[in-house]
Amino acid sequence: MPDPNAVNSMFGRIARRYDVANRLLSFGTDVHWRRQLVAAVARRQPRDILDLATGSGDVALALSRHLGPSVQIVGMDFCAPMLVEAEKKRAASPFAHNIQFREGDGLALPLPDESFDVATISFGLRNMADRHRSLTELRRILRPGGHLFVLEFSQPHRWFRPLYFFYLRHVLPRLAGWVTGDRAAYAYLNATIESFPGRDALSTEIRTAGFSTVTARPMTFGIVALHEARR
């Protein structure tokens, strides 16, 4: 499992160039993935949402823009430099007054039990030092009947794997190094993507943490999956 101090340091180093790198390295597809997540959350009509591993705040801001000011959103991350970037976006946005960004550890959330209708985590679960503990913490802060949404890299369809893994191993680190000046950070991220469980295995982990009715929807040839689970 990833070392929390190393992960925190790594994201701190790339925080200012993180969004640019995401758009470039995903060829803009990250915007589509985020829209699918927001649409799925909207169907649950939540009153309050925790966006864990919020990073630079893109998911929290997209949720606010789509769901409107009546929905209260907490964006939480343990990396202070990423939250600085998120706050810049919130301050510049005319519609994000319902977002509160807070520092917090995904393995010990500084939040009361049963305090949210929905929890989201996007591309952050694979960076947790203990996935089971993080998932049980997310279950703890959800109200009975609440929903968890996990948007995360997955294992691609078999026919697409050779091309995808070539890109991850040889192309992406060079592009990321050019954009962020930190090629090593993206070599680490690539390794976590390759070793992360596929849809079925992650669904099992979510169920083991106490969730029910877990579904998983693959996107973009299976390289990403959107999991939804009910508390």
For the largest beta sheet, what order do the strands appear in spatially?
Answer: 3-2-1-4-5-7-6
Number of strands: 7
Report strand %.
Answer: 15-25%
Radius of gyration: 17 Å
Envelope shape: globular
Mean pLDDT: 92
N-to-C span: 25 Å
Would you kindly provide a written description of the structure presented here, covering whatever features stand out?
- By secondary structure, this protein is an alpha/beta fold.
- It has helices spanning 4-14, 18-25, 29-42, 58-67, 80-92, 131-141, 161-180, 183-195, 199-208, and strands at residues 48-52, 72-77, 99-103, 116-122, 142-153, 212-219, 224-230.
- The protein is built from 9 helices and 7 strands.
- The protein is globular.
- The model has no long low-confidence stretch (mean pLDDT 92).
Describe how the helices and strands are arranged.
Layout: H1 4-14, H2 18-25, H3 29-42, E1 48-52, H4 58-67, E2 72-77, H5 80-92, E3 99-103, E4 116-122, H6 131-141, E5 142-153, H7 161-180, H8 183-195, H9 199-208, E6 212-219, E7 224-230
Parallel strand pairs: 1-2, 1-4, 2-3, 4-5
Antiparallel strand pairs: 5-7, 6-7
